[in-house]
Amino acid sequence: MPEGHSVHRIARQFALHFVGHSVAVSSPQGRFAAGATEIDGRAMVSARAVGKQMFLEFDNELTLRVHLGLYGAWDFAGDITADATTASAGGRMGQTNQRGTVADGAGTRGENEGSLHSIGAPRRTRLRMSEAESLREAQGPDQDVFPPEPIGQVRVRLLTERAVADLRGPTACEVQQPAEVAASLAKLGPDPLVDDPQEGEERFVATVRRKATPIGLLLMDQAVVSGIGNVYRAELLFRARLDPYTPGKLVPEELVRELWRDWTHLLRLGVETGQMMTMDGLDPEAYQAALASRDDRHWVYHREGQPCRVCGTHVTMAEAAGRKLYWCPNCQR
């Protein structure tokens, strides 16, 4: 499932290329036809992410709420920017790139020659982003045609004169009234990139410190804190050297605060790089390798049975609320 950094990058893509423009909204698949008519032809006035959910507001006070879930993704095409480091992101966003690939030349700030930051994507360009991002050129005789024909089961198509975004397979996709948006937001825990930093920290600490639920489950609870998924959960706990089964109320307050601050740091880094980078202190060569491959990017996630990078103890995996939890039983005790 996409984690918070991906959804923030999606929102930035919309902020740059769709906000302020009239948007033709359709449902090529047909399943969202009624909702599409409510916002078709309206101007998008804001795009924001809160945790794993995104809210696209239109000038008739209606909002398109999208939760990608396990299988959802956005495909972008047109005159789009290919990097979200500044004002936006581009591409297909949803799942982590399981093959560990990264777009050619991608760096933290587009400093590499030919990096995505410096590419002005022509209309034949297609940018696909899950939790990672890839840039490709359309092939065939229709490669320069805009907009491109919808491919596959497109739930929603958002189209301006210069950009198009196709949504596939979301868990939630609905048009909401302002009161419904407020209700959706009220169910979500603080997001470091949305909430006031100090208020968000205090809210997170207070919630965790009154819960008997294991901290490994609390970090995945979107009502406790927004945006953390399976990867960030495992890595945050390792970085804190914290046993995932420790009840929240027994985690020292200062350590809970450190978790929030580290999540803030990792989330910002994820938005900047487009990768869930969780290892610090890497030399330039190791850093580039980590950007290119998940195997070199994480401390414990997806490393069951492999030696801990710190102590050499085999990394352990267990099922926790239906998700795989990874930790080092020696470092995290």
Automatic annotation (TrEMBL):
EC numbers, comma separated: 4.2.99.18
Cofactor(s) for this UniProt protein: Zn(2+)
Superkingdom in the source lineage: Bacteria
This protein's name: DNA-(apurinic or apyrimidinic site) lyase
Swiss-Prot/TrEMBL keywords: DNA damage, DNA repair, DNA-binding, Endonuclease, Glycosidase, Hydrolase, Lyase, Metal-binding, Multifunctional enzyme, Nuclease, Zinc, Zinc-finger
Similarity comment text for this entry: Belongs to the FPG family.
Source organism per UniProt: Homoserinimonas aerilata
Region of interest (Disordered), residue spans: 87-149
Organism classification: Bacteria, Bacillati, Actinomycetota, Actinomycetes, Micrococcales
